[in-house]
Design brief:
This protein is α/β, with parallel strands linked by helices. It has 7 helices and 6 strands; from the N terminus they run αβαβααβααβαββ. The chain has a 6-stranded mixed beta sheet.
Length: 149
Amino acid sequence: SLYRDKFDLNRPLIQLVLCGCRRHFGAAGFCLGPVQAPYFQDASLLIAADCTAYAYGNFHQEFMKGKITLVGCPKLDDVDYTEKLTEIIRHNDIKSVTVVRMEVPCCGGIEAAVKSALQASGKFLPWQVVTISTCQSQSACHCDFTAAG
């Protein structure tokens, strides 16, 4: 696909789109990113709403470094990520999962999908949810690190 041509999938820092085919390439369903791949072995996953990198200036340095990054938008993708995430977690040796989402209600879908996928996978993994807050005052902006599991 066009997306795969832009990235070397064997690099340690990989960003895969959970869905987005429909949105970016006119196709439907989960068509980008395999369920099993060498880079998932012994990996820490970052599962992020696609708008978080735009809303948080140090996103790459603070969240992506050393993690395999999966990106999606539950509002725009019109799919449930749970099944694909369950299979990724079930079929690979994942070390941990970090969810980065915005405080808006639509981002709750990505958090819910990860929670359901972790439960359905049958694995007990350390995981956390980071909520990016948007606000008018720089001094009041923060991330809420919620220990989820």
